[in-house]
Amino acid sequence: MKAFRPFVVCAALAIPALANAQAAGDRPAETFNEIERGLYFSVFGGPSFIVNPPASEGPRPFSSGQMAQVEVGVDIGERLSLGLFVLGSSNRAGSDYVGNSGGTASGDFSMLVPGAVVRAHLVGFADAQEVKRTWIYVRAGAGYALFRPKQLLPDPDILVFAGPGLEYYTRLRHFSVGIEVTGSFLVKSQSFGFAVTPNLRYAF
After folding, report:
1. Cβ-based neighbours of 116, under 8 Å, separated by 6 or more
2. Alpha helices, H only, the chain
3. d(CA 98, CA 16)
4. Radius of gyration of the chain (CA)
5. Prior bond to 149 cis, omega within 30?
6. Domain limits of the chain?
7. Nearest alpha carbon to residue 165 among 200, 130, 132, 121
8. What does the pLDDT look like over 9-19, one tens digit per residue?
9. Structural contact between residues 90 and 70, judged by C-beta atoms closer than 8 angstroms
10. pLDDT one-digit tens code per residue, 23-42
11. Does the domain at residues 36-203 carry the CATH identifier 2.40.160.20?
12. pTM score of the predicted model
């Protein structure tokens, strides 16, 4: 009987380990989405241009500047997103630009625009693992434009914009990067503009 004691001890130690292994095998393996979609936060930034800035008199010179935008929203499936944004821009203008001031102010101006946006993914391209990481999309939005200085451009306007973009969902599944080109239009002043904006997006 003494010869069997080591086997009995080994069996007693092995049974709990085998039971735990079996329990672990019964649990389904945890899986992750290759691309996270849902609530998201995006930042945009880049050069922006206004072809004919708002003005009631005097010249309306081509104006270059910079813009930045933050956006929060939600993905509705793979192809549609809805969001809210706040956009800020600053544009250069010479001393001969008097806007709507009647000559009491001149020069550079800035714009602050809160608004809403919609984005639709049109075409997706799969990688070697058959995951559609690269997308061509269109994005359009509208907002309420407020200008500074008030003496130069006292009246608000409605900004509408739209344009195509290219987005790549990285292997860090929450992040995507992209670039888009948008045309813009200030409805009241009939001013045209455009922007080129790299962007970074994080989905929760």
Report:
1. 82, 83, 84, 85, 141, 142, 143
2. 5-26
3. 84
4. 28
5. yes
6. 36-203
7. 121
8. 444 444 555 45
9. no
10. 445 555 556 688 999 999 99
11. yes
12. 0.82
